[in-house]
Every structure is written in C-alpha cells, then in structure tokens.
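2024-03-11 09:14:02 DEBUG pipeline.ingest accepted 1 chain
2024-03-11 09:14:02 DEBUG pipeline.ingest length=469
2024-03-11 09:14:03 DEBUG pipeline.predict start
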Amino acid sequence: MTVFATIARPLVVALGLGLGLELAVAAPVAAKVFDPETFTLANGMQVVVIPNHRLPLVTQMVWYKVGAADEPPGRSGLAHMLEHMMFKGTGQVPPGEFSKIVARNGGRDNAFTSSDYTGYYQTIAADRLELVMKMEADRMVNLRLDPETFRTERDVVREERRSRTDNEPSALLNERMDAALWMLHPYRNPIIGWDHELRELTRDQALDFYHRHYAPNNAVLLVAGDVTVETLKPLAEKYYGVLPRRDVPPRARIRDLPPRADVVIEMRHPDVQQPSWSRQYMAPSYNFDQGHPTWPYALQVLSEVLGGGTTSRLYQSLVVNRKLAASAGSSYGSSAVDLGTFSVHASPNPGVPIAEVQALLEAELARLLKDGVSDSEVARARKRLVASVAYARDSLSTGARVLGAALSTGQTVADVEAWPDRINAVTAAEVTAAARGVLGSGPHVSGLLLPETTAVSAIPAAEATGRTP
C-alpha cells in the first residue's frame, strides 16, 4: 500500500501523474497517445481499455474519485486507512487472501492513495483477468471490517507514519510546507494523516467513508494489455455492471483561500547530512486553471526549461558552470481537482553555504521573470516532452496510470489524447506569462533543511530577489 505522489523519471517525465498530462481545454485531436477505447456501464461506471498485445499480460486498475482531501475534518488518514482495510476480506475472500490469490496465479498487486483519488491494481496473465475482476468487484461492495483487525491495522499505519515521515527529515519539512502553503484547504493535511487524528479513527468512520464513496458510479475501471473491448465488455458487465449505483456526495472544497502570505520555514534535524533549499508555489492545474487555460501547458514547458534535467537552466548554472550545487531542478504538479504546485529546489556541494546557493537560484528566477524564455528553449523543451510519449506507450501500466489520474481529477480521454498537440502549440510568450503569473506573484512557501549544528540561515526572499513580499 502506497501514499501516492508521482511516477518517477525518466519513463513518463511528460506523462507522469502530477507532471501535467491532465488537460482541460477542448481542441481537435490529431496526435494520439494511448489510443484507448471507452464505454460506460448502466450503473455509471466508466471503463477504459488500452490494448497492448506485446505480452500476454494485463493490468487492471480501479480508481475511486476520493482521496485524502475528501476526508471529514479531524479524520486525516481515513482514505489511506481504508485502502489498507480493502485487503482485509469479504464473504468470498478471507482476510489477507486477496494478494495471496493474485500471487498464486503469477500476478502482483498493490494500491495507492493521493489527495484526490485512491487506486487498486493487479498485473497478471491475460487468462487470469476474470479472476481479478471478480475479486475487485466483490470488495467494492462487500468489504467486511472486523473491529480487532481494524485496530491492528491502524497501529500498522501509525508505524508507517513513524518510519516514513517522523523519522525522515525531508518528509517532516514537506508536511510543514504543505500546511503553510495550503492554509485552510484540505491539501494541507498529509495523505497518511496526522498521528493524533490517526489514533482516534474508528471502524465505523471507515465503514461510513466506504459506503459514501466506494460505488461503481464513483470509480473508473482501466484495463491495459493483451485485451480487447470485445473480450472485456462482457466481463465488465458481468462483475461490475451488476453492482448498484449510489448517491455520492459532491467534492466540496475550499477554493477561496486567504490573502497571500509568503512563508519561510527553517528546520534543523540531527539526521540531516546534506542541506537543501526548496520553494513551492501554488499554480493552476489543468482542472482549475484560474482563467488562464494555456498556463498549465506553459508551466510544464517552463519546468522543462528551468529545471527539467541536466541541460536545464538551474542545473547548468548551479551545478555545471558554478559547481556550487550537487543538485538543482524544478517540477510541476498539475494532477489535481483543485490547484497544483510548481516547485524549485537546490542542494549545495560540501562546504558551500546554503545561502549562496539560494541566492544564485533566486537570481536565476529573477532573470527568468525579467527576460523571459527564448523561442529556441521552448522548442527544445517541447520536443523532449512530446518525444517521451513513445516511451510511455511501451509500458503496460503507464497508460492506465495516466488516464486514471486524469479521469479521477476531472479530465477526459480526449484531453489526454490531445496532449502532444497542445504542448506543441505552447509559445515562448505563453511560458513567460505563466512564469510571471506564478513565480512572480503567486503564493509560495520556502523550506530550508539544515543539519542541527548549521548556523547559517537562508537569505530572506526580499533580500535575495529585491522584491518585497
């Protein structure tokens, strides 16, 4: 079970979850990405088929349109806790047997939770597809939650939090940065939950969350691999189509955030060996573009130009030319029901003051905002991003992951398929405008992670950029 954020580079740098394929503006489709087929069952469940006949394997994924940001106040971690409990048995499948049955049939399975969705998947031989469809459909409506099992698994989740967050300085800093950036919005809460709220979760709360959100009309079924619509549709109707639809509560989110207040968070920790500096900006997402429909595309190109690898501006300036940083880069997360994030980061070489690296990175941002980007930079970035589609098509599960994230956050299959054309339409002027709108005037939080003995603080943002917050 996984607290899910993004797929790692390099396979889907352009198509990865959170890095910008979930698009919102309608446009004619020319270039294809995964060329899927789709249909909807009578109960409202959307089904997407992505044929790939290179191997006799299939990946089944069920994505629920509910995540950590949909939890009731004071119950953080509930979505992830329910993800764990989904493996604890039904009347047909005894507790703990789901994954064992998949493994005995030569497959593997897992699950993940994000702020906006929860997903379950199995990769298995094509002739075992019916088996995993039957089991997945069964636990969509027939989950049993034994009280003692719930208490035990709650302790497991709390231990997971201790090992992955409480004992990991960078994770602790990220929690504090999220809380400061998002303020009242539920994105402020960690997906795994705050420990004081985790220990108070109850079996009845988990069951209520399950019955409110786990329904076929609130889920998307994606099957990729050695399969066709003709073979899949009868199975989908047999196992998922008979499940009753239910009324699902709307995703009521706070979108009117308090006025901008830029924040700097400095954290020292005895386990930190390598200092680092980072900054996160609120940014439009493809589902919530704030009236700037071209900015999400432009921000993905901007991330490639600014910090998308060893040829990017930040890496060349800080790592290659000045040799002051061990790493430097940027990322853009747009797979969201609400706003996304744009971030930049750097870590100094041994002996280099963190404040010096921060000042250089701030100077690069100031140069970007003043001079913009060039046509040639944008053309190269567009080419690299669109070329990555070929690698994504080679993967059995990438199409299901990308489409699942898109459909779970408000996008359509047509949006995903149109992505190469829309990226190719991005201009240097659009990239510069998006950079100035987000990096120049958007809300942000800066984080400084230091060894416990370090005495040098970060340079205040106003001093580093010449701008008054």
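2024-03-11 09:14:41 DEBUG pipeline.report Residues 147-166 form the longest helix (20 residues).
2024-03-11 09:14:41 DEBUG pipeline.predict end
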